[in-house]
């Protein structure tokens, strides 16, 4: 992340974006960097038409997984969802492997969606019901759809097992308790499927007649109620211990969801469990990041980000300790 971000020029132009866009039509120098996280994302124009490019290091995300994500996008779009679809390259490919001066990347170009991005703290109470309805519509459109190229919750827990330190008794105990609890849950087409897995407010496009949905790159096989828990994690400060079934904003979200498809009350009672799964996955995955040695002359924002992520990891550990206290 640091290497790419250090190339961003005043005004938001990032020279490496011109490199990754070589297989597509684009107006040189039109890019404006948007975000750096698990992927890098920038806007650009092609013949004056705004589009979005997303790229990730080729050794961090495989092409098959990305192709599966795009197949899922086309599936839900074919069943009526408004999502941003990929644009083929000159060679007719949806995903291109591009070598650049900073390394090799897997690159996808998308239509730019109308509407505006909003953070969860910018939402009023009136936003929660349509937000929930949109998630119910996604789950309805995806019902029965499976793709072995996308991970399952079991694979995510297995990755967490590989990431956790051997002497981390809290992490290891939480992993085992979670595995047992989740294995006992029913998983049917009615409550389980290929879900978005990151249906947070800033992955919705607001302000149009209907809500648009972006960023399916984390989609995984999981419970529908888990997708609700992940979507609303900011509502409860990302803490399972604070999930309140009586919260009126959660209630509005659930009403919206149920206007699109059924949801049993039993599924709502499992929201803290699914929040804990998210906490555990992020707790283990953040270890390598926060423990990475600082680079020489590291920019202040990198140190600030590392400290922020360290604080998040501490919070996740506190939640796991809270859950394990009765063992």
Question: What's this model, at a glance?
Answer:
By secondary structure, the protein is an alpha+beta fold.
Structure annotation, total helices? 12
Calculate the mean pLDDT score and round it: 93
Structural class: alpha+beta
User: Strand arrangement, largest sheet?
Assistant: 1-2-3-5-4
CATH topology of the largest domain: Aminoglycoside 3'-phosphotransferase, Chain: A, domain 2
Tally the beta strands. 9
Give the arrangement of secondary structure elements.
Blueprint lengths: L1 H4 L9 H6 L11 E5 L3 E7 L2 E9 L5 H16 L17 E5 L2 E9 L16 H15 L10 H11 L5 H15 L8 E4 L8 E2 L6 E2 L6 E4 H8 L16 H11 L6 H5 L1 H15 L1 H4 L9 H25 L3
Antiparallel strand pairs: 1-2, 2-3, 3-5, 4-5, 6-9, 7-8
Features:
single chain; 327 residues; alpha+beta; Phosphorylase Kinase, domain 1; Aminoglycoside 3'-phosphotransferase, Chain: A, domain 2; 2 domains; 5-stranded antiparallel β-sheet; two-stranded antiparallel sheet; 12 helices; 9 strands; globular
């Amino acid at each position: 992340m640091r290497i790419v971000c250090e190339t961003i020029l005043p005004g938001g132009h990032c020279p490496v974006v011109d490199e990754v866009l070589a297989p597509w039509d684009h107006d040189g120098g039109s890019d404006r960097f948007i975000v750096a996280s698990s992927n890098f994302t920038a806007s650009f124009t092609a013949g004056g038409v705004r589009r979005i490019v997303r790229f990730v290091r080729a050794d961090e995300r495989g092409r098959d997984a990305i192709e599966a994500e795009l197949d899922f996008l086309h599936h839900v779009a074919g069943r009526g969802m408004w999502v941003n679809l990929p644009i083929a390259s000159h060679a007719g490919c949806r995903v291109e492997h591009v070598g650049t001066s900073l390394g090799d990347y897997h690159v996808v170009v998308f239509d730019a969606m109308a509407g505006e991005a909003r953070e969860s703290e910018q939402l009023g109470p009136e936003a929660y019901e349509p937000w929930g309805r949109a998630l119910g519509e996604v789950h309805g459109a995806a019902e029965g759809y499976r793709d072995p190229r996308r991970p399952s919750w079991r694979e995510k827990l297995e990755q967490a097992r590989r990431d956790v330190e051997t002497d981390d008794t809290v992490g290891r105990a939480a992993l085992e308790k979670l595995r047992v609890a989740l294995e006992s849950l029913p998983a049917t087409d009615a409550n389980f499927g290929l879900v978005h897995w990151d249906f947070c407010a800033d992955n919705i496009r607001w302000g149009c007649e209907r809500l648009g949905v972006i960023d399916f790159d984390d989609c995984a096989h999981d419970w529908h109620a888990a997708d609700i828990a992940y979507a609303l994690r900011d509502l409860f400060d990302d803490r399972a211990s604070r999930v309140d079934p009586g919260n009126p904003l959660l209630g509005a979200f659930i009403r919206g969801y149920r206007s699109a498809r059924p949801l049993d009350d039993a599924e709502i009672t499992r929201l803290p469990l699914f929040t804990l799964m998210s906490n555990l996955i992020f707790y283990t995955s953040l270890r390598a990041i926060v423990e990475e040695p600082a680079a020489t002359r590291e920019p202040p924002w990198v140190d600030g980000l590392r400290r922020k992520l360290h604080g998040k990891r501490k919070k996740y550990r506190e939640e796991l300790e809270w859950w394990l206290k009765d063992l």
